Amino acid sequence: MDFLNEFDPSSDDESTISTHKSPSYPIFSPNLNDKFWYRDVSKENQTATAITEIDLFRVADFHSSGDFEAAKEILTDLCENTKNNRTHEIMLIDSLLQCSVSKEGELSKSENDYCLRLLSEYESLLVDFGDQVQFLRTKALILAKSDKNIEFRHTMALLCQLCGSFDNWQLFESGAKFFNDVELYGLKMKMKKVLHYEIDRSRGFVKEKLEKKLKKIEGEEQVLAGKLKQNDIDSVLSSLNSNKEVFSSPESATSSVFRAHDSRSKNKLIPFADQPSVISDFFHRFPFLSY
Question: Which pLDDT does position 269 carry in this prediction?
């Protein structure tokens, strides 16, 4: 750092400094867009990428305002008339299904058939762990809006065996109509157990958010407990306590924690041929749930 000690600004050539021209820059002018610029912008003379971006902004806008049919119309056009890679195709199909999920009430027969066809296409595109987790989550939400009790249970079994995070266990609530009070009580107790695990390993606002969820679950659990006989409660608690699922070791935690770097893993994908045995194992571990 000796060169700093030797630096003397007064030694600069005065004539050089006085004749040196400052660079000339254009006056800065911010490029501000209206918040909803994509609503009226023309697609003429736009690149294919720009057109797709405009369409996707419009899809999000329609979805946010509750116009799911308009959103589906654009998404369908993108599926049918644009060249999509596998990942983009999954995104479009999942978005179409989310439009159906977001509608109030159960699905009509025609829309249910439409969703099942999309789910079949979706499943054929799965190649890794992250794809399958998202597929099962979306499938569960679709089935919850139908009368497919057994399929919903089996889908949730696969999802929670694949990744038993609280967010995934909580999806059981979307199909609450399929379960009796004993089953719902058992699910609340299991969710509480998973939440305690996640809270212990969280910090800051994430921990605070999880603690609020725990308080809500505990309140719901107490309401359900008031409806049950003591022997039903004891049976559920016994089955949960006898389940040797512990979270203390890294190996046992992998099924309970979704790690970003695992999302592209092909080894964690549950092959179709293995799914019946995986489902059976899940209900063996949680006998308070019937299937």
Answer: 87
